[in-house]
Amino acid sequence: MKTFFKTLEFLLILIIAAAIFANIQKAHAAVAYRSSGTFTTGAGTISPPYPADMVANDICLLAVESENQAISLSTAQGFAEVPTWSPQFAGTAATNPASRLAVFWKRTVGGDTAPTVADSGNHQTGQIHCFSGVITSGNPWDIGGGGNDGGANDTTGNVPGAVTTVANTLVVLIESTSFNGNSTVECSGWTNADLANITGRTDNSSTIQLGGGHCMATGNKATVGSYATTTVTMANTTFKGAISLALQPPPVSLTFTVDTSSVFIGSFTPGTPISSSTVLTVNTNSSTGYNISINRASTTPTLFNGADTIPDTPNGNNWTAPAATSTAGPSALWTSVTKALGFRAKQTGTVSNTYSTIWWGADDTSGNARYSGISTSTAAQKIANTTLGSGSSENTVVEYRIDVSTNQKSGAYTSSPVTYTVIANP
Fold first, then answer.
1. Which end of the chain, C or N, has fewer beta carbons within 10 A?
2. Are 392 and 284 in contact (CB under 8 A)?
3. Residues 314-359: tens digit of each pLDDT
């Protein structure tokens, strides 16, 4: 049989696209409750401390209760009262029972000094609650609500809801109590079908003067939309002030780069496969991570030289991504009879959280590395996925491997455009 050539050259063109869908509504590490400082009481001024683990860029809320007397800060130390919804109050001022709730907020810088609450008259109680992962500029809340339960003196608490405009908010629920007793079990049964993971965080009341305190809970609001009134059971008959704040995460950021816009795999001899690679770099703060997909512009074979083409279904495999990276896809080991252009994500150089051993093999050795063909469909197919963006640059390395039979026509083969797309996960 006549041999037509000894070496083959081709150029693989990669066209890079980075996409963040307009309806992606995810964020950096989700907004989370960090901790609270010591519940502080006094007949005069008080200075509630920060929790010991507070760090810069936390959003800290100072909740202050009084006997329905005006609440203010004599030394604010950067705290400002939440507008619109603070204060909330019920009952006759300076008379037992009565209750007023005011909430102040601050974005910390680290090493912050505690504020001082001015003497309201009878008494004041207060506590600082801190949260991480909140947007780092502007108002930390998307929306909020406030009310006094219709001025009722009873055991049913109602914290008004609101309508969020961003996803993945953490709704902070604060309810004051006029109960004149030392208790850490004043609030229970926080309930709201619109919020997930409702958790009581703090619960304190005191007998200081005419007495009082407040409780705080949180709930997750994953989607945009309304969260209705939250109900809570009070252990004792009480006047109440109630405020909810939907703390919002920072917006999604995503950058995508490739180390080169074209790959020259080079000259080779049939029967001796050669490889080259592309490095894809993603940086995103998406709390649900991202996925990388591959597709080509044409349904014809990827590599061509005029009418001549090189097969791109190694061992009969053409990549169609399974729904989950834990499910095997159409990939296989490269063997001596594999004659085609193949690709795979490499383990070496790829951040561990995006690499799937089920799709691409336990490692990069010849006995484990699995290859597939770039899909003959023009539809994008996932090649990597991660469920959390780290906020730092993460690499995924794609390997291209080629071998051909000895009767393949020689020449310089060029690819139709191959596109990589990165999308923040919904």
1. N
2. no
3. 999 999 999 999 999 999 999 999 999 999 999 999 999 999 999 9
Specify burial of residue 53 (Cβ count, 10 A radius: 0-12, 13-18, 19+). Answer: exposed
**Distance between alpha carbon 250 and the CA centroid of its chain, in Å?**
9
pLDDT of residue 17: 33
What residue spans of 265-412 are helical by DSSP H? 357-360
| H-run or E-run covering 399 | strand 394-403
E-only strand ranges, 19-91: 32-36, 40-42, 59-66, 73-75, 80-81, 88-91
CA–CA dist 154, 240 (Å, integer): 9
* 3-state secondary structure (DSSP) of residue 316: helix
Residues 6+ apart with CB under 8 A from 57: 107, 108, 132, 134, 136
Phi, psi of 402 (to 5 degrees): -140, 145
Report the C-alpha gap between 23 and 262 in whole angstroms: 32
Mean pLDDT highest for which of 23-37, 73-87, 371-385?
A: 73-87
Strand, coil or helix: 151:
helix
The bridge status of strand 412-415 relative to strand 9-18 is parallel
Using only C-alpha atoms, the chain has a radius of gyration, in whole angstroms, of 31
Decide if pLDDT at 293 tops 90: yes
Among candidates 38, 114, 103, which has minimal Cα distance to 72? Answer: 103
Q: Record the pTM.
A: 0.71
Question: Using one digit for the tens of pLDDT, what is the confidence trace for 184-220?
Answer: 999 999 999 999 999 999 999 999 999 999 999 999 9
Closest CA relative to residue 146, chosen from 229, 85, 214, 68: 85
What are φ and ψ of residue 359, in 5° steps?
-80, -45
